[in-house]
Design a protein that fits this description.
Elements (H helix, E strand, L loop, with lengths): L2 H42 L19 E6 L3 E6 L9 E6 L5 E4 L2 E3 L2 E6 L2 E5 L3 E6 L2 E7 L2 E4 L14 E7 L3 E7 L3 E8 L4 E10 L10 E6 L2 E6 L2 E6 L2 E7 L2 E4 L2
Antiparallel strand pairs: 1-2, 1-10, 2-3, 3-4, 5-6, 6-7, 7-8, 8-9, 11-12, 11-19, 12-13, 13-14, 14-15, 15-16, 16-17, 17-18
């Protein structure tokens, strides 16, 4: 290769390097501008506040310890203070507004608040309002969580199937199991839970067929659930009979 050819090649390499450096610097500049624009947008963008940061409870230091959500409402149970040690019941309609009253009783995960002739209760299963011994508001609870975000226990144990969910005036009853029905879980409206193994059953997976029957025993007390009614026997005699108001069978 002649000296002239070497000089031309050297100049070409230098030119290529200059072009490459210019392109590299231009790309870096464009990327810097883009990053600055994104950062500016993020700074201007308002941060979402956690739900518990809102003014839910009567006092700022009385944070919610339970949260229940129905189709139309959110209900919070706030920490108590010296005046009301059981806490506060706060019901917030999703369309706006707020109702707050002290909790007067607690049974497990059922919280009860009473004001004059009105009684309010909430648990992981349902929210109730009773006035003058009449139910004026009743909604199924869709979500129930504790302050740490963990869901509250509801219905059949985790990992089991719900073969039947039946509701009467006083009970919400679940028939649970793995591959076959094996347990009877009844929740009283007051929050008391009855959990028993099934002694016998006749299960139909079609909700319109009325020949399903489930039997559970607790000493001399027997619980018989059918599509039409829940019957409770004591020493062979019927002590409670309630009509099935809602029935949902796994299909």
């Amino acid at each position: 290769m002649s000296k002239l050819e070497k000089m031309i090649l050297l100049k070409q390499n230098l030119s290529y390097k200059k072009v490459f450096n210019i392109i590299l610097l231009s790309s870096f500049y464009i990327l810097s501008l883009a990053a600055s624009s994104v950062l500016a947008k993020e700074i201007k963008k308002p941060r979402e506040k956690p739900i518990f940061s809102q003014n839910i409870c009567p006092k700022a230091n009385l944070l919610p310890i339970r949260s229940f959500e129905t189709q139309k409402y959110r209900v919070y149970i706030c920490r108590g203070d010296r005046r009301h040690r059981l806490g506060y019941y706060v019901r917030i309609p999703k369309i706006g507004g707020k109702f707050t009253t002290p909790v007067t009783a607690r049974r497990g995960e059922t919280y009860i608040a009473q004001r004059e002739e009105a009684k309010y209760s909430v648990n992981p299963y349902e929210m109730l309002a009773i006035k003058a011994n009449r139910v004026v508001l009743q909604e199924e609870v869709k979500y129930a969580v504790s302050a740490d975000g963990k869901p509250l226990k509801k219905g059949c144990p985790q990992g089991q199937k719900t073969f039947v969910k039946a509701e009467t005036k006083s009970f919400i009853t679940y028939i649970c199991g793995d591959s076959i029905p094996s347990s009877y879980i009844a929740v009283l409206r007051s929050g008391i839970v009855i959990n028993l193994p099934l002694k016998s059953y006749k299960h139909s997976e079609k909700s319109h067929i009325s020949n399903s029957k489930y039997l559970a025993n607790q000493g001399n007390i027997s619980y018989v659930l059918t599509r039409k009614a829940l019957r409770i026997y004591q020493s062979g005699r019927i002590t409670i009979k309630e009509k099935i108001l809602k029935w949902k069978s796994k299909e």
